[in-house]
Amino acid sequence: MGLIQTLDQCIAAGQEMTRAIAVAQFGDDSPEARKITRRWGITEAAELVGVTPQAIRDAEKSGRLPVPDMEKRGRVEQRIGYTIEQINYMREVFGTVRHRPADADPVVLAVAAHKGGAYKTSSSVHLAQWLAIQGQRVLLVEGNDPQGTASMYHGFVPDLNIHAEDTLLPFYLGERDDAEYAIKPTCWPNLDIIPSCLSLHRIETELMQLHDAGRLPQAPHMMLRAAIESVWDNYDVIVIDSAPNLGIGTINVVSAADVIVVPTPAELYDYTSTLQFFTMLRDMLSTVDLGADDFEPEVRILLTKYSNAANSQSPWMEEKIRDAWGSLVLKEAVKVTEEVGKGQIRMRTIFEQATKQRSSFSAWKNALTIWEPVCKEIFEKLIKPRWEDAK
Questions:
Q1: Rounded distance between C-alpha atoms, residue 146 and residue 203, angstroms
Q2: CA distances from 240 to 127, 141, 145 (A)
Q3: Which residue would you say has higher pLDDT here, 80 or 114?
Q4: Could you tell me the pTM of the whole model?
C-alpha cells in the first residue's frame, strides 16, 4: 500500500472516530445535537441576573417567572437549578440585560501568539463562553486557523460538516460582500461562531495574488476587519481565535483587533516566542494603514500554563516576564489543570459541564477558579472600559 492510500485510510478512520465520540456524547454527530445541560443554583443565577435570590423566589410566586424545575432527591423536593436559557429570560423579566451601549461599537478582541501550545484556542473559547454566560452577545471567529479547533469545541468538525464555503475563505477571496453566510449558531444562547476548515490556509498563498490583480475590495490586511464590521451590529464582543504563524492571516487578525491578548506560557522558550511576535507587531504597525490615523490596538499578555508544582520554572519566569513587560501583563494567569483536556474528551468545556459530566466536583470547581477570574479581568479591564470611554 502506498503512502497516499495509507493517508486516505488514516483520514477516514480519524473522521469516523470523531463521529463516534460525538454520537457517544450527544446521540448524534451534528452540531445541532449539542445541548447545554448544566444548571446554575439560585444563588449563582441571581448573581448572573443581577438580583437577589429572594427576588427570584418572589417573582416565581407572583407568576412573573415560571414555576422552577423541581425534583426529589430524598424526601425533600428541591430546585434542580436553572438553565442558561432560563437565566437569560430572567434578565428580560428583571430588565437586567447586559449589552453594549447603543452608541458604542462592539469590541473586537483577538487572542494571538506566534507559537502553538500557548492556550490560544482554550483562552478564546473559554472567554467567548464566559461572556455569553454573562449575557453578552458574542461572535467567535476562526480568523485564520485552518485547524478549526475552536469550531470543534462547538461541534463543527472541519472537513466533516464544515467546508470551504462555510468559512471566511469566500470573503477573503472577494467572492462575498458580507460574512453573514458564514455565521452559525452554537448550543450557547448569545454565542455564534464563524468556523473554519483546512481550506482556509489558501489565504496565505492567494490573498496577495488577488490584491496584486486588483480583485480585492479592501487592502489585503483589512479583509478580516471588513468581514467583522459587515456583521457586527448584532454583537457586543467579537472574539478572534488565530493560528500560530506570522503570515498574512495573522496580520489580518492583528489589523482587525481593537484588543490583542497574547497568551504566553510561563516558560523560557515561549517568552522568546512572544518577543518575536512583538517584533512582528512593531514592524507591521509601522508600515500598514489600520483605517484611522490615530488607531492602534491595545495589547496585553496573559500568562498561561502556569504550574505551582515543586521545582516549576513558572514562578521564576513570571517574575522575569513582569519585570520585563510590567503593566502589559494581566494580573491573572491560566494555571495548569487537567480538566480542560478531560473536557475535550467529553466534547465539553468546563463552563458546559453538568454535574454528571465532571470528573469530580472539586476538580471542576478548581478549574472554574482558574478560568473565571481570567475572563472577568479581560472583560473588566479590556472590554468594558472601551464602552465607557465611548459615552
A1: 10
A2: 11, 5, 10
A3: 80
A4: 0.92
What would the grid cell of residue 8 be? 486516505
Number of other CB atoms surrounding residue 272 within 10 Å: 12
Where do we find the cell 502589559?
A: 328
One-character DSSP codes across 163-211: -GGGSSHHHHTT--S-SGGG-EE-SSTTEEEE---GGGGGHHHHHHHHH
152: burial class by Cβ within 10 Å (0-12, 13-18, 19+)?
buried
- Compute CA distances 280 → 109, 209, 244, 248, 286, whole Å: 18, 22, 13, 12, 10
**DSSP E strands, 217-328:** 237-241, 259-265, 298-306
Q: What is the Cα–Cα distance from 245 to 240, expressed in whole angstroms?
A: 15
Helix (H, G, I), strand (E, B) or coil at 68: coil
Longest dimension (CA), the chain: 75
Q: Give the 3-state secondary structure of residue 280.
A: helix
What digits encode the pLDDT tens for the residues 50-74? 999 999 999 999 999 999 988 888 8
User: How many other CB atoms are found less than 10 A from the CB of residue 192?
Assistant: 22
The DSSP-derived string for 88-153 is HHHHHHHT------TTSPPEEEEE--SSTTSSHHHHHHHHHHHHHHTT--EEEEE-S-TT-HHHHH
